[in-house]
Amino acid sequence: MKVFAISDPHLSFDDLKPMNIFGSVWDNHWEDIVRNWKEKVSDDDIVLIAGDISWAMKLEDAKRDLGLIGALKGKKVLIRGNHDYWWSSYKKVKEILPEGVYAIQNNAIKFESVIICGSRAWSVPELGVETDEQDIKLYEREKLRLEMSLKEAKALQEEGDIIIAMTHFPPFNSRYLSSHYTDLFKEYGVHSVVYGHLHGNSSRTQLIHEKQGINYYLTSCDKLNNVLQEIQID
Fold first, then answer.
1. Do residues 180 and 132 lie in contact, with contact meaning Cβ atoms separated by under 8 Å?
2. CATH number of the domain where residue 132 is located
3. Per the structure, how many domains does the chain have?
């Protein structure tokens, strides 16, 4: 079994919002992702998609986008991004997911010796920059939600199992300083972390960052040139 990750596909097949206004890397980006997916992924593998999955505004309108993901090989695990407005209650989302597609929302799921958990998270405050009070509240709230997920992952963990966490927002600021989220990952013995949200040339481009013995993978599809990132689990 292998684990792959990609995030931020921003699918819009039933709600046309072309992404190539942000650059040529978005030309036919989903077709490129699918082509690479078919080359790499088997039915036994896991593919993590760390948010901003579909531009749909309503759950019903996201069905086609989710169906395209469901038709691909592997066990697909999703978390919510800040643009996934269609993602309503966890219960309702689970009800429409195609076979082989799983949602994580402050909980955890286990596949053989790999446990997946996570939360959307929120923007980590920048050093020396005043942060909006509402953003601080969201940052603190997401800490509680992430810990709920990590506790469930820990309860599932047996000897030899590893925990991989997903967030949509980067779990640290632009200087990669420690945060509530990175402290929790260290406390709960997380093996690797997958995140997205960052796009374009202006955002930091360190695709794999090691911190306190944990590898953090930035998996925004445009940053990866629309290919899946393998997460090393050995």
1. no
2. 3.60.21.10
3. 1
**pLDDT truncated to tens, each residue of the chain (234 aa)?**
999 999 999 998 655 666 655 566 778 899 999 999 999 999 999 999 999 999 999 999 999 999 999 999 999 999 999 999 999 899 999 999 999 999 999 999 999 999 999 999 999 999 878 888 999 999 999 999 999 999 999 999 999 999 999 999 999 998 999 999 999 999 999 999 999 998 876 666 789 999 999 999 999 999 999 999 999 998
Q: Which residues, including other chains, have CB under 8 Å from residue 143's CB and lie 6 or more apart?
A: 180, 181, 184
* End-to-end alpha carbon distance in the chain: 11
11 DSSP β-pair partners: 54
> What SS3 state is found at 185?
helix
Q: Residue 183 in 3-state DSSP?
A: helix
Distance CA 212, CA 191 (A): 11
Q: Where would I find the beta strands (DSSP E) of 12-124? A: 46-49, 75-78, 101-103, 108-111, 114-119
**Whole domain around residue 171: which residue ranges?**
3-231
